[in-house]
Amino acid sequence: MSEKNPNVAASAGVAAGTAAEPMVRIGGLRKSFGDLEVLRDINLDVMPGQVVTIIGASGSGKSTLLRCINLLETPDAGHVWFHGADLAAEHVDVNRLREKIGMVFQGFNLFNNMNVLDNCTLAPVTLKKMGKAEAQEVAMRHLESVGLADFARADVNNLSGGQKQRVAIARALCMQPDLMLFDEPTSALDPEIVGEVLEVMRRLAAEGMTMVVVTHEMAFAKNVSDEVVFMDKGVIAEKGAPSKLFSAPEHPRTREFLARYLEG
Amino acid sequence: MSKLRDFVTRDHRYVLLGTSVVALLGMLLSSSPRPELSFLANAFTVELVMYYVLVAWLVLCAVALLFKLTHWHNYAESAPFTKPAVARALRVGSYVIWAITAVLLVDRWVMGLASAWQVAAAAEKMPDDMLAQVLYMFQQGRDTYITGIITTIELAVFGTLIAFFLALLLVFARIMQVDRSDNDCVRFFKKIGVWFAKVYSTVVRGTPMLVQGVIIYYAGFAFVSSFGLSVTDTNAIWSRFVAGLVVVSLNSTAYMMEVLRGGIESVDKGQMEAARSLGLSQWQAMVRVVFPQGIKFAIPGLSNELVINIKDSSVLSVIGVFDLAFAASTVAGIYWKQLNAYLVAAVFYLIMTAIASWLLGKFAKRFNVKAETMGSTSDQPVKVEE
Q1: Any A CB within 8 A of B273 CB
Q2: pLDDT single digits (tens) B342-357
């Protein structure tokens, strides 16, 4: 919590306290790929303004859980409520709900056939019936905030990894989402440019954005998040405030995992 | 480019050995009979001198080879051929050899072709010489060949264009997946679309175009005449050309659909996921993001279809479409010389496919993609999707 603006953090806490209604509620979520059970009975609440970090070894189901929240993976059983609407129900208008959920991928996934600005304006123009000029104005504001306003007309293939990921964040923000999902946003980056992406995420958290972050950046999990979730073999082995989970982990697997990270 | 320049000006390795082959070729040309229009026939001494220069060069090469065999270890130091001045002279000599051979080539082959053309044009009946025969048949059957060429081009160009638009429709039917938010009606149509595209592709790619041609022509004929039309009227509506165009289009549609599908599927899955995560529908994501990238991968294969159609439309002569192959068989039937008639057709097919490949290569360059070499539908194995 130390790096967060205390006022914002407090107000977010208050908001969460008074609303008492979680933005995302995951209940009894199950997912298998063939015979492999990836998620087993996951229950998790994300309050508005909260930053939840999901950590765990590779193959523990972190990314799958995240991708179930915006239904890029279809759950086999269970529910994902977002603002009270069950995403996992048949025939639900997923596209409308996804407009409110931004996602940032490990591999950036910028649209290769467009320049930076068009990447940012495609969805707002197509879905929000926003005028091109207005959408570009919004996009420029977000590109400014990630420090890439000068690259608006650049071809996305000419950007560095860190720049690509910052554009991806700006692109998601252009839809004015209520919730941002980050799927290992820094894992494909060179160590020296991880910082520029984390800096943007840190600022986003300080502005009160609700975020669910799958990451291997333990420092980020420790300093920025309100809650840390440790996943192991498809279940949530332990969750709690970062101060508690990092200093006094209860589950033996958590201890083992953290020890390995502290050594490495 | 600098590599080529170095080879021409500096590299010594192939001067003697390489040019000796050229000199031998020149000698062979010189010993071949002179055609009617040969210009060297009037300059016998010139040709004699040229011939002996070639012989002298071969002798020189033989000496150099012997020297190399006897001085295997220190050839570079001991041989007179590697001294800079001699090497330079040898290089100039090699250019002379090339020039002599080129002159002989023009005299014997180009002028030979011209003579044969003259003979063929003047001939009242089939000449004796093979080359003159081929040219005679081309000259006599010129209108037939030209009609055939125009029909072949029409079939290939219109067939490919029609097939492209049909393939676009079909590939979207093929790749649409049932989405969670779809209602039952949309789901039904998506499933029907995928099923239809799969069956269509399997049936068309799994049967030969010749067989398809016969079936479609006669089935269409029966269908049109079932409205109570006479044979003449039916022929006017369902002509052999129309039937042929339908066959080429339907056949090419299946292959182009698979090419397009391959292109679309080679686009990174993350592109679709990113578009969907922003709230775009499957259709919007496909049209705005995935397809524009996928078609780039598909352009070489798509343009190759034109070349394939130029060649493969020849099987339509089985239903009497007056294409180039049909023209060749017509001319062959008149003179009873199959080989000559089809040699003429082969040359024209080659010219047409070469021009098409060249144009398509330029077209593909505009999209920054590399064009494929010529292929045929029969080269591609049929993949049956389950």
Answers
A1: yes
A2: 999 999 999 999 999 9
